[in-house]
Amino acid sequence: MGTSRVQGMRWWACAIVALGTMLMSHCGRGEVATDVSSEQMTHAMEDTEDFSGQNAWNHCAALCELGPRPTGSPAYAAQLEYIARHLTAAGWRVERDTFSPLPGRHMTNLRACFGAKEGVRPVLVSCHIDTKGSGSKALLGADDGASGAATLLELARVLARTPDKAQQVELAFFDGEEALGERITEKDGLYGSRYDVARRGEEGLPACMINLDMVGGEGKVIAVPVMDTLPEMYELYRTAVRELGLPEERWTLHLGSYWDDHRPFVEAGVPTLNLIASFTGSRWWHTARDNMQRISAVSLAETGRVTLRILSLYQTVNDLNSPGLNSTLRNLESSPYPAVK
Ligand SMILES: [Zn+2]
Fold this sequence. Notes:
This protein is an alpha/beta fold. The protein has one domain (2-331): Aminopeptidase, CATH 3.40.630.10. Helices cover 38% and strands 15% of the residues. It contains 11 helices and 8 strands. The strands form 2 sheets. It has a 6-stranded mixed β-sheet with strand order 1-2-4-3-5-8, sandwiched between helices. Strands 6-7 form a two-stranded parallel sheet. Helix 8 links the parallel strand 6 (222-225) and strand 7. Helix 3 (53-65) packs across helix 5 (142-159). The protein is globular. Residues 1-40 and 320-341 have low confidence and may be disordered. The structure holds zinc ion. The site of zinc ion (ZN) has 4 residues, from loops. Zinc ion binds at residues 132, 144, 178, 286.
């Protein structure tokens, strides 16, 4: 079963290649800059019905004002406080999971629910909040770290306006996505998401997962990894992009897999969408240039609206109002990988 699923995914990936729908280019640089303090920006939050790119930008700037936020740092702890405070204010119940993936090293994920619905398997929307490097080599990670958290915080505010929808969503802010070594491998990096999958067990897995990573760069090109994505999830993504009238050349695919926080969930059989900007070969990724100057409120707003649209489409497809969400997607038995025991 597992093998045939993988083959199915590969066939589908090849079909995508044959269709020539793959478009790749790299992110541009933003122009946005401000000297407004985070305290002022917090007060300037808009109470809009729709996702506010400005609110998300404000969150991103406030997180960056804490400085680099590598796992285990005081700035990382301050970031947890900031996120928890805003989630709680929006009516979400916050939980922290502290774990030790390596001897002597403690990490903390933060999760939030809006009063879970009985018998409903939630959709997980996630990001990572640790930033790359340590000590004098710690990086600010405006896009690679803060942009995902900023988008989730604004999503939390918007979702809270419709409690019935919010109750079907869980938010997760993962620690330890970045490798302690140079690159993420099977043993280094993704510590928070790996822990979260293990903590949940099979019964606690979400119905599906949308992971946001590097989603705030001006002119970004989102490149969803084909090999990690079920056709049904891809359809939700394409439909959302089309319905919002966004340029398809900036909401595209990566012909392969990515090591990112969706991967432990893929390996556990969870349908995922990894919304991640094309970053390989860029001049900013894992450098000091990943700062607020490249973050755009428009870009964050597009990510937020696509995510909300996907959630809405998914909830429609799966009639999440009925008790017992064993979603259509899970019942399709089309997960690319067998469940992890
Ligand atoms: Zn990174």
